[in-house]
Amino acid sequence: MYPDLISIGALHIRTYGCCMALGFLAAWQVVAWLCRRTGRAPEPLSNLMVALMVAGVLGSRIAYVIEHWQQEFAAHPLSVVRLDQGGLMFYGGLILSAAYFLLWCLIRRERMLPLADILATVIPLGHAFGRVGCFFYGCCYGRLSQSAVAVSFPRGSPAWYEQVNAGLLPSSATASLPVLPTQLFEAAAVLLLFAVLLALYMRFAMSRPGLVFGCYFVGYALERFALEYLRGDPRAAIGPLSISQTISLALLLGGFSLMAVAFSRKKR
């Protein structure tokens, strides 16, 4: 855990924020490269990607606040704006970004699926950087484990607080009990997904618009649904499933629908 990349007096540069910035820059470089290969000018997409990043952060924060209102924000509502203290839910950002993207395409009369294929290809790359940032901050940690890959987070970390509040640790403990590093598990999984989507884009983007977009939905939904069983941080539930698992099922259905549409059209 290393939440502050630079800390000098009142100046604090958060590692999580730097990871998000690096993820955005890496994603933009790949988008520009893909645009050049397909004959699309990348410059008009720069403003769209910045807007989508802002929408992603805002949506992630809104979703997290809704899910954790009683535990974290009801007594301290002003802390809603304290993004420096962590607290983002990826699916909330994905939903708000998708809504903005749809509106942007309608207003500008852009063909949505070819553009969505480009963006869907690079989302997992940026997401991987974000999950590494989660590991440095200590959030989104996994279940208690004595396995060789388990890690202990230091005093003051989210895992430490939860374990102290649950009576699993004394408040004098200097580190949390070992937990699974689910942040790094997901970072590795979405990097693999990025590699698969990139290969699919290079092969099918021009002939099957929407296929890569659908494959992203399916791939991430399956990965996230499975990984939720390893998470140890507190999350709201809908019946036997977490909120993220419920959204994953909807995303899975949407992804298969997009793939069916892509294959039902005549090959271009």
Key words describing this protein structure:
268 residues, two-stranded antiparallel sheet, globular, 9 helices, mainly alpha, 2 domains
What does this structure look like?
It is a single chain. The protein has 268 residues and is mostly helical. It has two domains: 4-143 and 180-264, no CATH class; 145-179, no CATH class. It contains nine helices and four strands, in the order E-E-H-H-H-H-H-H-H-H-E-E-H. Helix 2 (44-67) runs antiparallel to helix 4, helix 5 packs antiparallel against helix 7 (182-204) and helix 7 packs antiparallel against helix 8 (211-227). The chain is globular, with a radius of gyration of 20 Å.
Strand order of the largest sheet: 1-2
Spans of at least 5 consecutive residues with low confidence: none
Report the biggest beta sheet as strand number plus sense, adding barrel if it closes.
Answer: 2 strands, antiparallel
Q: What count of helical segments does DSSP give?
A: 9
Radius of gyration equals 20 Å
Q: First CA to last CA: what distance?
A: 49 Å
Give the number of domains.
2
Instruction: State the helical fraction.
Output: 55-70%
Structural class: mainly alpha
Tell how many strands the DSSP assignment holds: 4
In N-to-C order, the SSE pattern is EEHHHHHHHHEEH
What spatial form do the alpha-carbon principal axes imply? Answer: globular
Rounded mean pLDDT is 89
Task: Please report which band the strand proportion falls in: under 5%, 5-15%, 15-25%, 25-35%, 35-45% or over 45%.
Answer: under 5%
